């Protein structure tokens, strides 16, 4: 007999998601370089983005959960400790090295897809790999013999070598061994990790288990769109996996508020009593895991984030790079911020109160967090 779904009110659902995202406590991962490793492993991935009107998203996401975070901690994890690596999830992201085997099949499939790359890129890639094997790691700045070409789209490069390096990266032949801003240094994957070869790739069934468990750990309550992001539905194999876990009592179906979208959670998650505490304030990146899934954010918080960086200035409602402000379990304000690095200050270009914002209760707390945020923006 089917088990009736658990009816969960929105406030309880928000607390579960905030707990899973480790946004309900100030220092959930400790401090120092080890905290960065723990945070990436818990979240599953940390998205990278190029926009730097304030600090780039990967540093911002980690700072939100690690109060004493320093940019060098991520460099250490990537280049010295080698506990994180860069690869594609729903976007380019930092991923735990412990999970690399779940990406090996995608790397090998990428190698075997000739439609993605031209023969010229393949030949240039082989040449660059030989050079890296002979001379050591290199960045695009080390390649000075390119014949420049016309860009085919906005994010393309005039250097053919850049496309060749990216192909070898997605093929798993090269790894980004170091990053300075958006300048990437490439190294042979096996040499970087000290391996004879890449680990054996996970099976399709193991990859499905990994994707579901990653979502359950970092989201608490999961749905088809949240597990499969950016895709909206389960494939038949994932649907069968969820059904098996439900039948075994490892998952319970949940209905949140008046939403008809099915969610699932472990019995342990549903049985853990959570209560709202003192409102901790977080200034969130638009690429934070709490924000990037827009429909989920709207369902849980009643707030729909609009990313206006690519909207013409005359049509923007809130600003170029606005940041949601989380106070406790409510999104209360929206800040358009810019770091003036030359003047050594953080500029508040616009401050918008949202429906859940209470200026008398929240303004001082947000200003205190802005001071901390400014120190991070201008620090090392």
Count of extended strands: 13
Q: Count of helical segments?
A: 14
Helix content range: 25-40%
**Gyration radius, rounded:** 22 Å
Please trace the helix and strand order, writing H or E for each element.
EHHEHHEEHHEHEEHHHHEEHEHEEEH
Percent of residues in beta strands: 15-25%
Q: Strand count, sense and closure of the main sheet?
A: 4 strands, antiparallel
Amino- and carboxy-terminal Cα gap: 59 Å
Helix/strand/pairing category? alpha+beta
Unreliably modeled segments: none
Overall form:
globular
- With strands numbered from the N-terminus, the spatial order across the biggest sheet is 10-11-12-13
Please tell me the overall pLDDT: 93
Give a summary of the structure in a few sentences:
The chain has 380 residues and is of the alpha+beta class. The protein has helices spanning 10-20, 33-43, 57-65, 71-80, 104-111, 119-135, 160-170, 189-193, 204-219, 224-228, 236-247, 267-271, 294-301, 359-378; strands spanning 6-8, 46-47, 84-88, 92-96, 138-139, 174-180, 183-188, 252-256, 263-265, 281-283, 322-327, 330-340, 345-353.
Topology:
Elements: E1 6-8, H1 10-20, H2 33-43, E2 46-47, H3 57-65, H4 71-80, E3 84-88, E4 92-96, H5 104-111, H6 119-135, E5 138-139, H7 160-170, E6 174-180, E7 183-188, H8 189-193, H9 204-219, H10 224-228, H11 236-247, E8 252-256, E9 263-265, H12 267-271, E10 281-283, H13 294-301, E11 322-327, E12 330-340, E13 345-353, H14 359-378
Parallel strand pairs: 1-8
Antiparallel strand pairs: 2-4, 3-4, 5-7, 6-7, 8-9, 10-11, 11-12, 12-13
Helix pairs in contact: 1-9, 2-4, 6-7, 9-11
């Amino acid at each position: 007999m089917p088990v009736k779904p658990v009816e969960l009110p929105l406030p309880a659902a928000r607390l579960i998601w905030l707990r899973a995202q480790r946004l309900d406590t100030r220092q959930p991962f400790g401090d120092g370089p080890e905290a960065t490793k723990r945070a990436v492993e818990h979240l599953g991935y940390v998205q990278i983005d190029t926009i730097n009107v304030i600090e780039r998203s990967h540093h911002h996401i980690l700072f939100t959960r690690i109060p004493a975070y320093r940019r060098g901690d991520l460099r250490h994890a990537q280049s010295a400790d080698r506990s994180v690596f860069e690869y594609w999830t729903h976007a380019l992201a930092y991923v735990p090295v412990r999970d690399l085997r779940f990406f090996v099949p995608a790397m090998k499939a990428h190698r075997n897809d000739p439609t993605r790359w031209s023969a010229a890129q393949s030949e240039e890639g082989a040449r660059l790999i030989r050079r890296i094997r002979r001379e050591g790691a290199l960045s695009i700045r080390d390649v000075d013999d390119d014949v420049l070409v016309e860009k085919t789209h906005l994010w393309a490069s005039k250097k053919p070598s850049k496309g060749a390096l990216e192909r070898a990266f997605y093929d798993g032949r090269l790894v980004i061994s170091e990053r300075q801003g958006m300048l990437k240094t490439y190294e042979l994957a096996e040499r970087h990790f000290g391996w004879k070869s890449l680990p054996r790739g996970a099976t399709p069934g193991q990859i499905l288990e990994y994707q579901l468990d990653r979502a359950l750990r970092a989201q608490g309550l999961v749905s088809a769109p949240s597990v499969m992001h950016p895709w909206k539905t389960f494939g038949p194999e994932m649907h069968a996996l969820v059904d098996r876990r439900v039948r075994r009592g490892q998952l319970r179906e949940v209905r949140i508020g008046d939403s008809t979208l099915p969610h699932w959670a472990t019995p342990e998650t549903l049985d853990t009593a959570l209560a709202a505490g003192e409102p901790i304030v977080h200034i969130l990146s638009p690429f934070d895991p709490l924000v990037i899934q827009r429909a989920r954010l709207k369902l849980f918080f009643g707030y729909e984030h609009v990313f206006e960086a690519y909207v013409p200035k005359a049509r923007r409602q809130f600003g170029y790079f606005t940041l949601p402000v989380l106070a406790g379990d409510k999104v209360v304000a929206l800040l358009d911020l810019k770091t003036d690095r030359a003047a050594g200050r953080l500029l508040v270009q616009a401050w918008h109160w949202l429906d859940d914002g209470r200026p008398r209760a929240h303004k001082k707390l947000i200003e205190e967090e802005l001071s901390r945020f400014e120190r991070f923006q201008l620090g090392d």
